[in-house]
Each structure stands twice: as structure tokens, then as C-alpha cells.
Specification:
Blueprint: H1 3-16, H2 24-41, E1 63-69, H3 75-82, E2 100-106, E3 109-115, H4 130-137, E4 142-148, H5 154-165, E5 168-170, E6 177-181, E7 187-191, H6 200-209, E8 215-219, H7 225-233, E9 237-239, E10 241-246, H8 253-260, E11 265-267, H9 276-286, E12 290-294, E13 307-309, H10 315-322, E14 330-336, E15 347-349, E16 359-365
Parallel strand pairs: 1-3, 1-4, 4-10, 5-9, 7-8, 10-11, 12-16
Antiparallel strand pairs: 2-3, 6-8, 12-13, 14-15, 14-16
Helix pairs in contact: 1-2, 2-6, 2-7, 6-7
The protein binds guanosine-5'-triphosphate (GTP), potassium ion and magnesium ion.
Length: 366
């Protein structure tokens, strides 16, 4: 039996099993098994399973945004509108057959926008080019899920299932759980909060299912069983997602208003150029780029050309963003702005210092 059939079998068994206290552990085990098979399915370079690697497009610029959606929702139309790259658009499905990168320049940042083929239900299990598309989505700093405002709400949930199946968690934080393997000593589980969505017995069942007999688990958040499995499997990607409803020119004002009020949602019309500037503004802010202005001694900072970095960036990243040799010859840096603990004055810092948006940095070398 192939992996896909095994997955089907487990999914069927889970659907058949009634959810209650008595079946909780069994369901937990099935979930763990399912997650293991899914992971196998996505391992790259397995000839039998067709591989799980994305399209071979070089990352460029300061961040990558991937356009994910069903066929003909208007992904290529968007790319053609907001970048200088043309991507073929047409009224028939699967017009786009590969990944097409374009560049958006906004607030000193260069954002790579990736147009991708449309995906269909079952994409994560190898239908169409879906596997490649969802694998590419994993490499993105932000996913723009494009939806057709004229179609049913169901499309959003279906796409979420496909992304979830490849280990992408949308608009979620990594669960606050510390998991440590040991060689002896058995299992220790500590919790700092009351668990209401799972319990210790389920967690022990799952650990046993993974043949983990010696480990320390520290749970600091009211997690679900699924979230615990995510922590065990480890290679989950937590990616921000913006839901973009296109073709609002073709729906009623009431419907548009309703969609626009949902969380993490922007409504647009590519064809009529409605709200596209706002969409770019939202993409830019959801990427949470950190702009750092560099300043030479005695000169004013260069405010036109910031170094754009991701959240969590350090002075070392700033150095690497300026010049390859800077970090190796680094002596110290002066930082003005939100990350300086003496703000408005400068703080003298080392390579590991975390920078904040709109900091000004001077680097001193040997
Ligand atoms: N009414 C309306 N139609 C649009 C809008 N944007 C795109 N379209 C139409 O939708 C159709 C599909 O557009 P594409 O850009 O090719 O869609 P896609 O998502 O790239 O499609 P695939 O590459 O096949 O997955 C085309 O006929 C477009 O003219 C819009 O804002 N309003
Ligand atoms: K199309
Ligand atoms: Mg297209």
C-alpha cells in the first residue's frame, strides 16, 4: 500500500471515530501517524513519491511573497499590475504553469512577488503541480491567499487545508513548548498553565507512538493535541497570511463590505485598479521589515537607502547587508533609535544586538 492510500485509510478511520473522552487517545495516535505519513510524502528526492521541492526560483530582494489560490482568481493579473513583470493571464484555468517572480519596490524595500500556478483540492497529495506550489509557499515570508470574491467562502477553507497538510501554519505563533530528548530518565512533563484542549495522558500516548521514552516536555501554553504533534515533528513553518479577495467589481457593495471586515483581509479589483496601493501597503507592513539607516562618522544618515531586514535581525545582519567583509573586521557599532537603551542617545553595541525599525547605525571596523 502506498503512502497516499495509508493516509486515506487513517483519515477515513478518524472520520468514522466519534470524538469523545474514550476515543481521545486513539485519535491522538491516529493524528500522530497521519502527520508522520504526510511528512514522508513531502520528503524531497523520493522518486516514488514525486518529491516535495518547490519551483527553482532564486530568492531575491528583502522578502518573498507567494501568491496562492485556485485557478483563474487573478494571480497573474495582480503580478502584471503591481510589478514590471508580465505574467500571462487568460479566462481559462491553469494559464500559469510555473513560478514567475516580479519585484515590488516600496518604502525602500524590494519585495519579490511570486506568481504561481493555481492549485486545486488535493494539491498537497500530489495532484497537478500542487505539491510544487505548496512547497514553494513554504519558502515565503508572507503568503497572499488570493480568493475570488464572486465564488463561495468554501475556497478559503479548502486552501487552508492544503497548506496545513504540508506543515504551513498561517497567522499562528510557534507553540510555547520546550521539548528535549534525553538518553535515560523517562518522560517528564511540566505545565505552567492548565491544559483544557489536551491532557497529559494524550501527550504520553503520542510520545509513545513516536517511540520517545526519554524526554523533558515543558508546556507553557494551553495547546491542542495537533499543536503538540507540530512541536514533535519540528519542521513546521509559521507564516503570516493575507487573504485577498479579488474581483470586487463583480459583487455587491454589501458583500464587499462584509468581506473587508474580516481579519487579515484586503478586498481588491485588479481589473479596475481598486485598492491595489492599499494591498501593497498591507503586504509591506505584514512582512514587518526592519529598516536600518546607516551613517558614516560625522555625516547624516542615508535615509533614502535603508538596509531592509526581517524581524529579529541583529547588527551582524546589518553588516552583512552592507558589505561581506564588514562583520569580520567589526569592532563595535553605535545605534540610535528604538533599540538603543539610552535613546535618544546612541548605545555602543556588539554584533549580537537586536535592531529595531528605523534605527540608525554606524559601524566601526578594525
Ligand atoms: N471581473 C474581474 N475579472 C478579473 C479581475 N482580475 C482578473 N480577472 C480575470 O480573471 C481571469 C483570470 O485571470 P488570471 O490572472 O489569468 O488568473 P490566475 O489566477 O493567474 O489563473 P491561473 O494562472 O490559471 O491559475 C482573467 O480573465 C482576468 O481578466 C478583476 O479584478 N475583476
Ligand atoms: K487563468
Ligand atoms: Mg496565472
Amino acid at each position: 500500500m502506498g503512502i497516499i492510500e495509508k493516509i486515506k485509510e487513517i483519515e477515513e478511520e478518524m472520520a468514522r471515530t466519534q470524538k469523545n473522552k474514550a476515543t481521545e487517545y486513539h485519535l491522538g495516535l491516529l493524528k500522530a501517524k497521519l502527520a508522520r505519513y504526510r511528512a514522508q510524502l513531502l520528503e524531497p528526492d523520493k522518486k516514488s513519491s514525486g518529491g516535495g521541492t518547490g519551483f527553482d526560483v532564486q530568492k531575491s530582494g528583502d522578502a518573498r511573497v507567494a501568491l496562492i489560490g485556485f485557478p483563474s482568481v487573478g494571480k497573474s493579473t495582480l503580478l502584471s499590475k503591481v510589478t514590471h513583470t508580465a505574467s500571462e493571464t487568460a479566462a481559462y484555468e491553469f494559464t500559469t504553469l510555473t513560478a514567475i517572480p516580479g519585484v515590488i519596490e516600496h518604502q525602500g524595500a524590494r519585495i519579490q512577488l511570486l506568481d504561481l500556478p493555481g492549485i486545486v483540492e488535493g494539491a498537497s497529495q500530489g495532484r497537478g503541480r500542487g505539491r510544487q506550489v505548496v512547497a514553494t509557499a513554504k519558502t515565503a515570508d508572507l503568503i497572499v491567499m488570493m480568493l475570488d470574491a464572486t465564488k463561495s467562502e468554501e475556497q478559503r477553507r479548502l486552501l487552508e487545508i492544503e497548506l496545513d497538510a504540508v506543515g504551513i501554519r498561517l497567522n499562528k505563533q510557534k507553540p510555547d513548548v520546550v521539548f528535549k530528548r534525553k538518553t535515560t530518565g523517562g518522560i517528564t512533563i511540566n505545565t505552567t498553565v492548565k491544559l483544557t484542549k489536551t491532557d497529559e495522558k494524550t501527550i504520553r500516548t503520542i510520545l509513545a507512538g513516536y517511540k520517545l521514552h526519554n524526554c523533558d516536555v515543558m508546556i507553557r501554553e494551553d495547546i491542542t493535541t495537533d499543536e503538540f504533534i507540530d512541536v514533535l515533528i519540528g519542521n513546521r513553518k509559521y507564516v503570516p497570511c493575507l487573504y485577498v479577495y479579488n474581483k470586487i467589481d463583480a459583487i455587491s457593495l454589501e458583500r464587499m463590505d462584509q468581506l473587508a471586515r474580516e481579519d487579515n483581509t484586503v478586498v481588491i479589483s485588479c481589473e479596475q485598479d481598486l485598492n491595489l496601493d492599499y494591498l501593497i501597503e498591507r503586504m509591506w507592513s505584514d512582512l514587518r521589515l526592519v529598516r536600518v539607516y546607516t551613517k558614516k562618522r560625522g555625516a547624516h544618515p542615508d535615509l533614502d537607502d535603508p538596509v531592509c531586514l526581517r524581524q529579529g535581525a541583529t547588527i551582524e545582519d546589518v553588516c552583512n547587508g552592507i558589505h561581506r567583509s564588514l562583520a569580520t573586521n567589526f569592532r563595535y557599532a553605535l545605534v540610535w533609535g528604538k533599540s538603543s537603551k539610552f535613546s535618544p542617545h546612541a548605545q555602543k553595541v556588539s554584533l549580537t544586538h537586536l535592531v529595531a525599525d528605523e534605527d540608525v547605525v554606524s559601524v566601526f571596523t578594525k
